[in-house]
Amino acid sequence: MKKVLIDRGVRQLLAWYDRDRRPLPWRQQVNIYHTWICEVMSQQTTLAVVLPKFAQFIQQLPTVDDLANCDEEILHQLWAGLGYYARARNLKKGAEFIVNRLNGRFPQSYREWLQIPGCGDYTAAAIASICLNEKVPCIDGNVIRVVSRLLALQDVWSTAGRSRIQDYLTQVIPSDRPGDFNQAMMELGATICRKTKPRCDICPLQMQCLAYANNCIEICPPKKPRRVLVDTELFVLIFWHRETDTFAIVERTDGFLAKTRGFPLTIAHQLSKLDRWQPLQLPGKFTHAIAHHRITGRICVIQLNSNDIDISMRQHLALSKTLHWMNRLDLSAKLSTALDRKAFQLFQNYTYSDSICEQLALNL
DNA sequence: CAAGCGTGGGA
DNA sequence: TTCCCAAGCTT
C-alpha cells in the first residue's frame, strides 16, 4: 500500500520535471565530461554564478585531454569567481588520471568515480546516475530538505539521519530513470521546496508530504548550526619594482588561498619582521570573507631594488621559489582570486593619487 | 568527525 | 549594510 503511494509520487515528480525543468546547458544532451565539470563547479555555489563560468570553461577546455594538459594558472583564471580553488586543481588531477591511467576512458560506475580526486558521494552519484543510469541516489542540501519535509524528519544532520535519508532514497529511486529522479529532487528543492517561502501550492509531491500535512514545514529541516564569525586582519604585500612598474606574484604555499598565485599575505603580528624592507602601509582597507573569517585587508607596499626576495623573507611568508614579475596591465587580467583583485584595486586607487606617489618615491 | 576551505548573490 | 548561505570534498 505504502509502495503504491511512493511510486505514484515518483511518477508525479518525473512528470513535473519533464514539464518544468530549467533548460540548463548540460541538460541539452548527456555528456559525461560536461556533467563532471558542472557538478564539481556547482559544489557550494549557485547556478547564477556557475552558468557563465561553465560555458567559458567548456569553450576553453572542451575535452578531458585539454583539461589534463592545461596550464594551472589558466585553470585558476577560468575558475576565478567560483572559490575553493582546490576543486579546480582536483579536476585537473582527475583528468590526468583518466587520460594517463585509464587511456582517456571515463570511469564507468559510481564506485570508480569515487576514486577520482574531488569526487565524493554526491558528485559520483550524480555522474553515475545521470550518465551511466546507475541506481544510486544523490544527496545534497536540496535533497536533504525535500526528504526532511516529505518524511517530516527533523533529525537530518546526524549520521543516523543521513542514513535514514539514504535508505529512503535507495528505496524510491526508480531503475528506469535514476538520473532524472536525482535531478528532479534537486530541482524541486531549488525551485519549489525552497528553504524560504516554499511553493507548496504548486508542488507535485504535496499529497505525499508529511510536513505539509502536519503543518511543520518551517522546522523541517532544522537550521544547521553555523560557526561563529572570526574577525581577521590580513596584510597584502605588494612588492613593487617602481622603475618598470612591475609586481611580484608568488605561489602561496599555506594559509589562506594556499596553492594559488597572487600577492603574499601576512598577519599583523608578523608584519614587524618585514621592517628592514621598509613596508609602506597605504591608507584605506577592503573587506573580504573566506569561510567563517571576516577579513579586513590592508595594503603594504614594499619597493624592491633587485628582482630577488630574501630566503628568510620567503620562508617567513610561506612562498614557493617561483617569483613572477608582471606589469600592471597583465596583472589585472591574471589575478585569479577575489582577494588579490580587491587588494590590487585598492592599490591602483592610491597609486593614481599624487600624494601617495610622492610618499612612495620618498620611501626609495 | 569536525574543521577548513572562496565567492557572489539574495534577503 | 550586514548576514546568510549555495548542487561538498578533504584531512
Automatic annotation (TrEMBL):
GO terms for molecular function: 4 iron, 4 sulfur cluster binding; 8-oxo-7,8-dihydroguanine DNA N-glycosylase activity; adenine/guanine mispair binding; metal ion binding; oxidized purine DNA binding; purine-specific mismatch base pair DNA N-glycosylase activity. It comes from the Bacteria. Its cofactor is [4Fe-4S] cluster. GO terms for biological process: base-excision repair; mismatch repair. Keywords: DNA damage, DNA repair, Glycosidase, Hydrolase, Iron, Iron-sulfur, Metal-binding. Gene3D superfamilies: Helix-hairpin-Helix base-excision DNA repair enzymes (C-terminal), Hypothetical protein, domain 2. SMART domains: ENDO3c, FES. The keyword DNA-binding does not apply. The keyword DNA repair applies. Pfam families: HhH-GPD (PF00730). Residues 41-191 form the HhH-GPD domain. SUPFAM superfamilies: DNA-glycosylase. Belongs to the Nth/MutY family. This is A/G-specific adenine glycosylase. It comes from Scytonema millei VB511283.
